[in-house]
């Protein structure tokens, strides 16, 4: 454990980060992310003009990158919820240093996850038909479909995430407002702070609401991934039709979410000079969690193999054997190595203390998780029940453009938020420093 | 010409510039306001043109419009609005009833032989073709080519203008030229005048030609079909000592030996043969004794796929086998020579046991010797007169087509041909390359080509004249058994299009010929007295002319040749034998511009938009070509060389192909077929030798090293351990009819739904399915299924609602083959329905799994969840991009837009039509009132559809069969589509386990 700096110093530094002139690394990163965002806009525009046929999807592989990336992004978003909400409930005090970065990441990763289902469908203009709204047609959505519940779960999750993030920000926004020196900034942060005066009543209500939100968010992160898992478990497709998908997807979410937190925290603590607040101790803790996530996912991978091989269903078995030896085999083995083999290095404390290795392992996990979704979605569809209609999927330029563009969307949002809003939870850290605690 | 067109286009562009505002136009001419448009407007709509030219008075204009609309309704009563004498098939012509189809009989020809069809008209537009149940060659069944004929009728790329060396000419100019020419014909008695046609059975055309010959005795008429039946014709003529047409009765055949036979695929009368054959192959359904079919062939045929025993032989081995069989049966069972293969003895014994009830049928591609031997065997076994019937010739003037064309080319080269008139043929593309037809044609002082398309021949000929489609003109033609049909026009063609009758009439000196009058003149003359009008009406109504079937020939055949010539054909010289075969969809290439046929998956390769060189697995191994499939399908290019001619073709490893035989399909590689069909595949005609038309020996194969993608719709032909096709033997079935039944649990947590009215269901008999693909084409025609093109098929986005899967079983060199048509299963527990978030696919109260296109948002979860993979998705706006004339679409079926899922509906539009009728009369829909498009098209009646709740319905009876099964029963989806397991009838002597 390392001692935190004095509370005033934390406040000064954190609000300096917000109020000071924009650093040049930020401009460089922002320019790069804007470029990727442009790719996103062009890819989306071309998709709307041309139709989903611009992608490589076909019959039988009717779902492609959009679904894989939806699952991928929503799982990445979960890291924020886990670090910030779940560990808030367990009173794990180390979370305070990284929680804001994790929450920001959560909001930003949810954005591409929200776009993907809309991009995915054939008639994007009618996506709102999934809402149960009264209409002249007298038609309601079909409540038996996992997709509908997925839509609800995603919507609730995104709304709750934004609320949770914003409520957590309130006292810090007030701090920045108070320290702001220009009229414009005062008004901007003043409006956002919703008139926070730091009164005892404010604090009391705030703590209550924050606790409730954390208590709501924690089961929600489990449910949202379970419902995403049900999209597959509910499908009558070899490789999908398995009850293990809800926990499987949650395990994956834990792993990939934590990996993304690590990937963002490691450079940011240097760039924002937050070494005093985010210490090797925190990285070590995240590294251990990453290992736990990887072990959980390893269990799910073992079960994924067990089912088809033990179950005796010929379609399930053929499908699985094709995954491990057919055209998807490179992806299958790459995801296995990246997600559950290489992270075993985290058993060694020196690995968990090396920022570079942590960063690389996390990057590997994020790539590995993308491959996992790619294999789950595409390989299963390509080896379906009907051998006569077995087929393959070849991504087009536009598939890759949407992937690259979604990263651009994430990065742009993330850079904007960490530039405009405090990147660490000032009030929480100050409270801890004030109590003389160690983080 | 090209420069002129370019200049015109540039001129139009210039005029169009600056006309981008809110201005609507119907044609380019109107847009640019050319004087020719005004002129055309005056010709077409004199009233409106007048109104347009006068001061525009809106009220007056509207009056005119209303009047013309009302009159349009009156005018649209028949196929040809201004004729009062058209006779509809069923109903009296009391005016068009909107929402009702009316059917008109006519016929379509291939090889010159007619197959009767009914065209369904909707508001005077022909929409859908089906076989004419009254016609002996169809009995209601149809082929894929027939189904697609309506698309050809509407093809906007058909030739429109009379041209002379590429310059547009008027009809009057043409007539003037021909009338002028008549003088020179008269001068030399027609010695310089030649006619070139395909095979002709039209009595009227024959009469017209006969009249011309009378006028100019020196006139010569050449007939030539590139996929000629010369061997069939020649051998029959030799055997019977005169021209005959041999037809077969498969209902009486207990044992059939098929030598690479086309009796299920494209022999004249094949639809009838298929029906007759299938009638003897349904042991569970009919109880009729099952026939046994042996197939001896070098390359898979539809017959081979249905055979109880299929023997893969090289062409030389086929000849040897036939000689052995003939010799063995000649010596009445006594062991003469030892059989070349042990099984041949068993086949000979089986044949001998069934005297008088056998058919030995030989495909047109086999040499004349094999045909002669087959006739000898048939005669020896007493089949001639029983199952093999020789008729008086059907073709107007049977000649050897190969020789006829060669003689013409020789005369052309010798400068003896002054005027050549080619009608409905395309020799510049399809004539043997060694013949040098094109060079010879250039020497002819006056050449005139009458054709549907401005094709390769039109490009070389001086004059090109657009020909009327068979559905646009009056004509007549005879079926495989001689029955005549009078072809009546279904649409009025543009005035520049000309029929062969009209052209010959002009040649005969008429300046204003009328097709109908020509036809009537002939038939009045032929029929003599009596009430001609009622005869004529009845013949048109039924689509057959009564009492026109050919009579069996009186004389018996000349004695069978005792010692068959030993000259081996096609083998011995080493190297690879090239087998040239017609493409089952494009035929000789004449249908190349038809998107439905280009995209029709071929039976054995499921290949679309291109052809391949079919090689045996053993040949592939010899060449070092991998047998392993790739995804998507790619194939190595090989060079096939005979002498100094060569083609490059993708090598397709085909199980069941004879080693060292490479099959090339003709009809591809068209250079001027139109925008759809040009430059698709390779042109096998380029390699085809002139003398030995159907095969070429001594070819060498060489790998080139490049790979190309092939647009196939089925990449895997093995069942991968799944219970998809069930088959067994007749002996097993007799022992225990339920030997293939399984007892899967049908438990469900949900309460059962009571289907208290009709419960629609379909049953498909795998015994009857011959894999011809007519159902696929029929479904495409009925349901407005778009053509997606090669690139999209390569992306696995073909839209066919119904597919015919092919599965192999057994050894790769000689596999058994099973065809399985797969439409939507209409599961009672439909997995697609529960996953749609917007209720776009739901169940109706008749058990149909219906698709609500308007509600679909395109999540595609339904397709993922369909274990049968029968759903199709509009990845693009396929229908809009197709460029097909809107008036050819079936108006009672929705055209689907981009982003919408679709699938087989069991032809719900037909169901609803019948239900509305039934509701109005307060009854249930009767059996037979609803016939799906696939069911109607199927030549073998493999598909039946109807009400499962009606115990007397055909579908209920089929589903009660012990052989009835559903796909993937273990998933408990409860499909409404079920299959009857295939039963084979192997010879116990050859398959002791059976």
List the helices and strands and how they pair.
The complex is a heterodimer of chains A (439) and B (994).
Chain A: H1 7-19, H2 24-50, H3 65-89, H4 95-120, H5 146-179, H6 183-192, H7 200-233, H8 245-271, H9 280-311, H10 314-325, H11 329-341, H12 349-353, H13 355-382, H14 397-420, H15 426-434
Helix pairs in contact in A: 1-5, 1-15, 2-14, 3-4, 3-7, 3-8, 3-13, 4-5, 4-8, 4-14, 5-6, 5-7, 7-8, 8-9, 8-13, 9-10, 9-11, 10-11, 10-13, 11-13
Chain B: H1 2-16, H2 28-32, H3 35-44, H4 46-53, H5 58-75, E1 101-110, E2 113-122, E3 125-131, H6 144-153, E4 162-164, E5 167-169, H7 171-187, E6 193-197, H8 203-215, E7 220-223, H9 230-240, E8 245-248, E9 255-259, H10 270-279, H11 283-286, E10 292-297, H12 302-306, E11 309-312, H13 315-330, H14 342-353, E12 358-362, H15 368-380, E13 388-391, H16 401-413, E14 419-423, H17 427-430, H18 437-443, E15 446-451, H19 456-460, E16 463-466, E17 475-478, E18 484-487, H20 500-507, H21 515-527, H22 532-542, E19 576-581, H23 595-598, E20 607-608, E21 613-615, H24 617-623, E22 634-642, E23 645-653, E24 661-665, E25 695-709, E26 711-712, E27 727-729, H25 730-735, E28 760-765, H26 774-782, H27 790-794, E29 803-809, E30 816-822, H28 831-835, E31 841-843, E32 849-851, H29 861-865, E33 872-873, H30 878-881, E34 901-902, H31 908-920, H32 933-937, E35 943-947, H33 954-959, E36 964-965, E37 977-980, E38 982-984
Parallel strand pairs in B: 6-7, 6-14, 9-10, 9-12, 10-11, 14-15, 15-16, 19-24, 21-23, 27-38, 28-37
Antiparallel strand pairs in B: 1-2, 2-3, 4-5, 4-16, 8-13, 17-18, 19-25, 20-26, 21-24, 22-23, 22-25, 28-35, 29-30, 31-32, 33-34, 36-37
Helix pairs in contact in B: 3-4, 4-5, 6-26, 8-20, 9-15, 13-14, 13-15, 16-18
Keywords:
heterodimer, A: 439 residues, mainly alpha, 15 helices, B: 994 residues, seven-stranded mixed beta sheet, six-stranded mixed barrel, 33 helices, 19% strand
